[in-house]
Amino acid sequence: MTKRLLSHSCLVAILTTFFIQAETKLPSILGSHMVLQQGEKCPIWGWDDSDKQVTVEFAGQKHTAKVADGGRWEVHLDPMKANAKGQTLTIRGSSKIELKDVLVGEVWLCSGQSNMEWTVSRSANPKEEIANGDHPLIRHIKIPHRPSAKPESNVPSTGWQPCTPKVVANFTAVGYYFARHLQSEIKVPIGLIGSNWGGTRIEPWIPPVGFKSIPALKANFADKLDQFPAKRGNGINHQSPLALYNGMIHPLLPYTIKGALWYQGESNNGEGMLYHEKMKALIAGWRSVWNNPELPFYYVQLAPFRYGSDNDPRLPGIWQAQLETLKVPHTGMAVTTDITNVRDIHPKNKQDVGKRLALWALTKDYGKKLKGQYSGPIFSKIDHAEGKDSLTVHFQKDSTGGLATNDKKPVSHFEIAGEDGKWHPAKATIVYGDHLIVKSDEVKSPMHVRFGWHQMAEPNLVNGAGLPASPFSTAFK
Question: Which of 95, 195, 351, 419 is the most buried (most CB within 10 A)?
């Protein structure tokens, strides 16, 4: 009896194995309704039985690849022009997959913490914005929160969603308003990859190569990469270095993107210029893993907010770190000192934030001539051109277009200090529309100047396009 049962079990096992069919599989970043990046080779990849041939057909192209020993295959679509008409992408391997309604346009990664994850439904004018959210050429995919101990090859998701009033409420608001303004100007489909997580620090998003590229991070990070990501209980500490790169960025590779949008820093508040070093690591790291040394990286300078006591000094240091990051090529920064709520760490006006990011992209990446209209005044240098008792403040030429104030009142929130390092309120006078003279009766020989250097400062200095000036200090290192 026992022998007959064993024989029967073996037969079932053999038959089961015989009838199991191999299956062609794709990562979740590849799906119906996705947007492929125009003008670049676009990888299409997945998994199948080793030695199998996989064929990919799209937009008149046909490419074949042999599945490698590890079960992975990859082809590259030739560069394509933008196409707003949905097409079917077909994959044939052990099984057949059809991805419907695939567009070709511009693809942007939207990452950071809660102000990037903040949805349209929680931002300004939600009812009106949701009702008017019929933009089928804007597509969005949300990557779930998923820390990992190792670089993941795939991450589950609900897939790409065309923008309609039924789904736009849950889109990243900053990313959506960026895409809406961009799409209205360049008239091509826009794809948004929402890989973000509220409350997260910058370190979990940085890949190993990023940490290794910055000497200032060698001792505390690059030399200790084998210790990260750290565990928390039975899981992975999502705030640990590498954790979110492994689980939420690496699974996207090598999907071709145009650039990245970044809104983060609140959780690193108080780090001063160390945050600048970490931003450089993030930018260099992402450019390396995407194999694009000129990958555009546009970010949002934190808004004024009351952290702790009224005179908490930490936030201005982050502002200076973000300002310094503009020295990294192919970066841009949206300043938000005029669209804030110092009692709300999540300012509701995400429309202008997205638009200001789009102004950088339109100018730097899409050939739009917006000189003086894509960035508010960015500090350049100081000198004593008007005498030893005052400082002349110069701004980068393409960020002014004429200095002004947004309330028709005298320029506010300037301070100067002499050799003793004591700061005093100063009078700032606009000269010829492109620079300022700053002086105070309390400081006879000024050496340093700072502007908007208070966590709740909402200064009124703008350029001719009404875009606000970034806070800065010549004394902060």
Answer: 195
What are the residue ranges of helices labelled H in 158-244? 173-186, 208-212, 243-244
Measured between alpha carbons, how far is 247 from 195 in angstroms, rounded to an integer?
A: 10
Q: Which amino acid is present at 297?
A: F
What is the b/e burial string over 429-462, where b = at least 16 CB atoms within 10 angstroms of the residue's CB?
A: ebeeebbbbbbbeebeebbbbbbbbbbebbbbbb
Q: What tokens appear for 118 in the block?
A: 């903040």
Beta bridge partners of 393: 382, 436
What domains does the chain contain, in order, with CATH numbers? 35-102 (2.60.40), 110-364 (3.40.50.1110), 381-473 (no CATH)
Q: What angle do CA 113, 278, 334 make, to 5 degrees?
A: 55
Return phi, psi of residue 180, to 5°.
Answer: -60, -45
Q: What is the pTM of this model?
A: 0.95
Q: What is the DSSP letter of 50?
A: T
Give the number of other CB atoms < 10 A from CB of residue 184: 10
Per-residue pLDDT tens listing for the chain (477 residues): 444 444 555 544 443 443 455 899 999 999 999 999 999 999 999 999 998 999 999 999 999 999 999 999 999 999 999 999 999 999 999 999 999 999 999 999 999 999 999 999 999 999 999 999 999 999 999 999 999 999 999 999 999 999 999 999 999 999 999 999 999 999 999 999 999 999 999 999 999 999 999 999 999 999 999 999 999 999 999 999 999 999 999 999 999 999 999 999 999 999 999 999 999 999 999 999 999 999 999 999 999 999 999 989 999 999 999 999 999 999 999 999 999 999 999 999 999 999 999 999 999 999 998 766 899 999 999 999 888 999 999 999 877 778 999 999 999 999 999 999 999 999 999 998 889 999 999 999 999 999 999 999 999 999 989 999 999 999 998
